[in-house]
Amino acid sequence: MIDHALAHTRRLYAGRTASDKTEERFVSFDFLGQLNWLAVIVGALIYFLLGALWYAPAFLGRRWQRSIGWDPEKTLPQMKPTTYAIPALAYLVMAVAVGLLAAATGTDTVVEGIVLGLTLGIGLSLMHTMVDATFDPNKPEPWTWFAINGTYHALGILIVRSSSRSGADSPAWLTRMTGSRLADLFGVAKPVIAMAHFPALPGTPRHIRGTSIAELTELVTTDVDHLIAGGVDGILFCNEDDRPYSLHVGAEIPATMAAVIAEARPTDRPFGVDILWDPMAAMALAKATGASFMREVVTGAYESDMGVWAPDAAELYRYRRLLDADDVLVMANITPEFASPLGSRSVAQRARSAVTSSLIDVLLIAGPMAGAEPDLAAVREAKEAVGERVPVLMNTGARADNIGRFLEVADGVIVGSGLKVDGQTWNPVDPARVGAFMAAVRESRSAS
After folding, report:
1. Which of 175, 270, 371, 395 is deepest in the core (most CB within 10 A)?
2. In CATH, what number does 181-447 get?
3. Whole-angstrom Cα distance, residue 257 to residue 235?
4. Cβ(393)–Cβ(335) under 8 Å?
5. Alpha-helix runs per DSSP H in 108-237
6. Whole-prediction pTM
């Protein structure tokens, strides 16, 4: 039945959609589904309120009235509700149109947004107003009218450029006002997501035969309790010791993890799941346990310790839709451990296309192996490539002595080995290390 449902889902998604291609740009109403509608409404509202100030008698209102033949010293025509409702509706439609054009042209950065806003405001609105001023014989001061109206609409369209396909590439002030899903989820800037590593699970080479579910649960719960007591913002459950790793795990792995997570999961903060290295299994586990996010490698192609590694983001996202799990954030590592990317694309190119083409919710930058810090330049390159569109997190190698400089660039961190006894990945959590790490994070937050 599941195979049939998946096949049906693939047929439904077989057509070309707005996110299918990165390099080829096209205008499509599919982008309506990617607009940040709150940002669109806010942009239209600011456009409208700017008009109230722009045409106020104390500013340009009296000069505008004279330009169209109204005597500001006499009684002016009575304004009806529709006088204000129609422009408000028009500004909303304009905000949607600008958002669609931003999506179709791949406008992502602040500079690109300003260029698009100026192009539309000056090239279309201002020029249209100039033509009207040239041929309208009824206005006594057509060029005054042009200067006031044209400048207003050019500025308004520049502001409305804040509406976009995802909302994440809006100007920073608007992103903060609407709130990213990550900030909404954790309730804090630059969240710390701490790893709760499972011992080797049934069927894997390092599993200790005879270990019961209750014993696994006790080990994992003890680590989780130490992490929560130390003040981390979220927990990420992972089968870290199932070495050597598999790209397609058996059903026993998510089944065992689900049983343990049901007992060990926190109730006062978000948690996520990761199954190395099977995104489909991780998504199913997230849905079954009520996780808020999952971590995996879902884009690109790599040579790796597991052989040639080519995850399928399309399959994962269709499976997420099939499971009705759209609320599960996908945190995707684009520089995975134990692997090297095939091809010549830069970190910036992979970051940008992962967000645009594969709809990644959160980007992760890792070092060459568990416990190894990433190249800070790679974190910065990814962050500069996507701007405010999605968060970029440090994924490996975080320690109390390096987290400050990484959080100057990254939007948060996933930390595991640095919180373990002696800093070793497969050791238990060390409460003292958790305390020292969170103190360093708080110092970094207060400095930013």
Report:
1. 395
2. 3.20.20.70
3. 14
4. no
5. 110-120, 127-135, 142-160, 172-178, 181-186, 213-229
6. 0.66
